[in-house]
Amino acid sequence: MRAKFDLSRLQIGLRNRFLGKTMFFSKNVPSTNDWAEELARFGAFEGTVVVAVTQTRGRGRLHRKWVSPDGGLWFSVIFRPKLSARDAHKLTFVAGVAVAETLREMYGLKTETKWPNDVSVDGRKICGILGKANASGGKVDFVILGIGVNANFDPKHALPKSLREKATSLENELGRRVRLEKLLAKLLEKLEETYDIYAREGFNTVLEKWKGYACFLGHEVELSDKNLKIKGLACGVNQDGALVLRLEDGNLANIVTGDVSMRSDRGLRRH
Ligand code: BT5
């Protein structure tokens, strides 16, 4: 383990009302999302956090692999929001805002949010977010938000070749390692703060914050979804969290799944 977690110090300093009051830590698990889901099914409280030093089967969306080497910050949080099932995915935006703001405030990084679930620096992914909801009768029972931050490792050595150009890390951006427990504490505080804003003021306030970090809006993008590729102008993100694209034929399309890459004069931007 490169940078030791000191969970006791983390929790003493944590100013949160509920998020992070119960925390579990493991050196190695298949996936913190699966672990949190199992705890949630057994009735774990809202705000329970699980953290791992490494994950052997870290997951992204659509069963993609999330590479989780030693030195990263891999954690998941249990939420029990009063939301309908169709709004559960909006918590991904809550997490995006929390991560983008934290990395700016702590390290001065010019973070960007990328629809639907990434945080990048200069077009390179530094954080991925994975939300999974469990609902019954149209109401959310719990949502697991998994957050992976590439922190104390060099992507050139720790990630597979195919990701080296697309990914970055805090160590790579700052030229130094960071204290993981300080980063986790601040992230949990921001996460609670942004979650409270959602509950108090509604999704629009969170979405406006998220859009404030969204570099791709107003640009030509390419959307890939399974075998489909669509080009268009990214006009906005609507109240449902869907990406609004102006297609080449002038029509507007609301996109709910897929990945966007920014098109520039130099070709597709790294993503
Ligand atoms: C994501 O999916 O970006 C969500 C990642 C969530 C990871 C956290 S870690 C804690 C918790 N436990 C889990 O098991 N997962 C969550 P998606 O948008 O589908 O992006 C996945 C893609 O990102 C992969 O197909 C790779 O191309 C790329 N990728 C994989 N590992 C990466 C890394 N460490 N850094 C940057 N890109 C990566």
Topology:
Elements: H1 7-13, E1 23-29, H2 32-41, E2 49-55, E3 73-79, H3 91-107, E4 111-114, E5 118-121, E6 124-136, E7 139-149, H4 155-158, H5 161-164, H6 170-174, H7 180-201, H8 203-212, E8 220-225, E9 228-237, E10 243-247, E11 252-255, E12 259-264, E13 267-268
Parallel strand pairs: 1-2
Antiparallel strand pairs: 2-3, 3-7, 4-5, 5-6, 6-7, 8-9, 8-12, 9-10, 10-11, 12-13
Bound molecules: biotinyl-5-AMP.
Please give a structural write-up.
This protein has 271 residues and is of the alpha+beta class. 29% of the residues lie in helices and 32% in strands. The mean pLDDT is 93. The strands form two sheets. Strands 1-2-3-7-6-5-4 form a seven-stranded mixed sheet, with helices on both faces. Strands 11-10-9-8-12-13 form a six-stranded antiparallel sheet, with no helix packed on it. The protein has helices spanning 7-13, 32-41, 91-107, 155-158, 161-164, 170-174, 180-201, 203-212, and strands at residues 23-29, 49-55, 73-79, 111-114, 118-121, 124-136, 139-149, 220-225, 228-237, 243-247, 252-255, 259-264, 267-268. It is globular, with a radius of gyration of 18 Å. Bound molecules: biotinyl-5-AMP.
